[in-house]
Write a structure and sequence with these properties.
Blueprint (H helix, E strand, L loop, with lengths): L7 H26 E2 L4 E2 L5 H25 L7 H5 L2
Antiparallel strand pairs: 1-2
Helix pairs in contact: 1-2
Amino acid sequence: MPKEHFSREELVDFYNNQRRSVMGDQGELKRRFFDPNNDKVIDVNDPDMNRLVGKIDGQLGMLANLAYFIEQEPIPDNIEDIDKA
């Protein structure tokens, strides 16, 4: 059964873990798909790169929403309330 209530500390921990994940994905993107000699994308049409960019974009959107709700008082009682904003 999914957890229905999250403490502020749990949400902040989740936010920090997700932020570290995004930073790792951004590092992978740079290592795998950018030419370090001229700092340009190697192949803009690479499907693996586009999937990773989409993943990062989705994570950043979720992090922005989560950060907004962490700053609100009172914090939402459940994760569904985050989607209602």
